């Protein structure tokens, strides 16, 4: 995967970076830290035509493209469709009811701005946050504002770090990879705890 990413960037430059970041937003397993830190390193080469500002700009454009794809997927899988799904057997198995979807939607209406902004700087989640944003029909202006600002901070940080460490960029990738794994583990633990709490709360009501 890493060699594929590096080959694309070496061959297509800015547009390769934009394409890879857009793809990374749609398919989170593709590591943005490799794309961005290596992109920063490329700018330090003597024969490079890439600049730090250019890499950050095209990476952010890629982030927007990928985020919009997932936003519209979320819009297709809208709240009403989810409510219909949980009204049937799926809802009984998961102990979900249509009103739970309404509660989640109301939460996103009030906390969605912060969620989209801060999640853009968290590996894996930074991509997936676009789906609930689309499902709750977050206004496009707000969605783009928080997506651009959050992505710009994340992209800038990794590109600049990549340019500063130079040939040691892979060591940064390893550190961020560990950070990403810790985040994923924490999210899984939190999800399991919340699922159990939700399950037992529902059983008590019954």
Description of the structure:
The protein is mainly α and 206 residues long. The protein contains 10 helices and no strands. It is elongated, with a radius of gyration of 19 Å.
Please describe the structure with a list of short key phrases separated by commas or semicolons.
206 residues, mainly alpha, 83% helix, 0% strand, elongated
In short:
It is built from 10 helices and no strands. The protein has helices at 2-26, 32-42, 52-76, 79-86, 89-94, 98-119, 125-128, 130-135, 140-165, 169-205.
How many strands in all? 0
Instruction: Please summarize the sheet with the most strands.
Output: none
Kindly report how far apart the N and C termini lie: 49 Å
* Classification by helices and strands: mainly alpha
Q: Give the overall shape, derived from the CA principal axes.
A: elongated
Tell me what portion of residues adopts beta-strand conformation: under 5%
Give the low-pLDDT segments: none
Q: What is the arithmetic mean of pLDDT?
A: 78
Secondary-structure element pattern, one letter each: HHHHHHHHHH
User: What proportion of the residues is helical, as a percent range?
Assistant: over 70%
Number of helices: 10
Q: Radius of gyration over alpha carbons?
A: 19 Å
């Amino acid at each position: 995967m890493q060699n594929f990413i590096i080959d694309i960037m070496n061959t297509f430059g800015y547009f390769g970076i934009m394409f890879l970041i857009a793809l990374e937003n749609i398919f989170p397993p593709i590591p943005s830290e490799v794309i961005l830190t290596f992109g920063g390193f490329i700018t330090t080469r003597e024969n490079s035509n890439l600049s730090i500002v250019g890499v950050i700009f095209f990476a952010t454009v890629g982030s927007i493209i990928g985020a919009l794809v997932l936003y519209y997927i979320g819009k297709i899988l809208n709240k009403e469709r989810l409510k219909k799904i949980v009204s049937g057997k799926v809802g009984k198995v998961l102990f979900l009811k249509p009103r739970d979807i309404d509660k989640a939607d109301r939460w996103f209406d009030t906390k969605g701005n912060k969620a989209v902004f801060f999640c853009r700087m968290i590996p894996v989640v930074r991509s997936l946050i676009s789906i609930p944003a689309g499902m709750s029909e977050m206004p496009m202006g707000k969605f783009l504002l928080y997506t651009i600002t959050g992505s710009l901070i994340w992209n800038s940080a990794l590109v600049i770090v990549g340019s500063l460490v130079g040939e040691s960029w892979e060591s940064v990738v390893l550190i961020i990879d560990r950070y990403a794994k810790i985040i994923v583990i924490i999210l899984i633990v939190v999800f399991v705890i919340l699922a159990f709490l939700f399950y037992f709360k529902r059983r008590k009501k019954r």
